[in-house]
Design brief:
This protein has 17 helices and 8 strands. The chain is an alpha+beta fold and 409 residues long. The chain starts with a helix and ends in an 8-residue tail after the last helix.
Amino acid sequence: MISQSSFQDSLDGDEKEVEVEAEAEPVEEPPLEPSRDAQQMDAHYSLYRRQRSQQPGDSGDIGHRRTGSSDSFPKETLSQEDLSLSLVASNLSVEAETELRTFLIRRLSKGAPFAGMGTIAAVELSIAEQPVACYYCLLPPAEQPSATESDELTKAVVTDYALCFLGSTEKSLELFRIELDKYAQGLQPYLYSEASASEPDVQPYLSCWYEEAVLYIHRVVQLFQEKLSILLRAALSHTPVDIQGADSKIKQAIEWFLCAASLQGLMQEDSLASLCKAMAREQQKAIVVDCSGPTPTVTNAVSNKFCEDWIPSFLNIQETGNPFLIRQILENFKLKAIQDMNSLKRYIQQAESNNYALFKCFVFLKNCGNGEVLLQNVKVEQAEMPEARSVVKVLEEFLHEEGVITCPI
């Protein structure tokens, strides 16, 4: 069992002789991308209506789930009628739109993707010399028609929509897949109103997809500048953020940035759920962001050195106006946080039976600039492991004494 006195014995040694080396691979710099102006010119869209026959009892696209990382999905039995797509709205030329429709029919004939979850693929169109990234998604009605006795001998006709966003490269657009899914879902109220969707109804929403689902990240960095470190720490620590005085677009942009900066998808789901519950029980004081002025003011602001050290990278890239580079910097930031957390877990495991390893834990947490957040995450993940709890408790005590932790974890 690790004791405070045995740890103190380690501290009495020469701390300068201990250097915690980074065990993870260095984070790679993101590749250069086209300028923002060039990307915006290529931000095309197309929306198609599909009326397909459906046998009574057939759940269609709704029930399908991904079976792996592949973009292949359970195959439907489609007739030639089912493969017909009628154009609702597009800003492509006639020739390019025809090429896109052919591509989309070919893709859908191989198997329908899970409704509401987009797929990104490269498509060759006459508008560009190189293949263009295409995000496509099926948008089903909220409720499928129910079968009646009169339908037993006939096929029900279901109307759904296929949405395409085109621009940049596959790798770049893939960074914003979650945001594109959210933006696509926001189109559904326009599609399934009492009147059938028409181009005047949906064109304003579709034409803003790049501005709202991709460029939002540039607007947030530009708005917060050095204060961005507060949002980064809030995202890592699951601290609630109350956004006031902002219009709907700015509020959505900040919320999407917080979601993008969180470790969701990089941590195990059960660990993340436990951490969120633990944070909710502690009733953390919310960070209040007031956007009513020209620059946001922040109340209850908390930052740390780890997040602050990343701000020059964000601001340097922000000057280029390239959202894909900003997003890559954000992904690198999250990757480094995960690497540090994994290093801490290894140190704690070693420290269960080794006082020197415990000292390495202490030095690591003290110098990494993110010790409080890392220890908070690890404490929740290893709550059911008695030996690990003992190590974490000793680390908490000494980090409090050193001022690394200023409030109870």
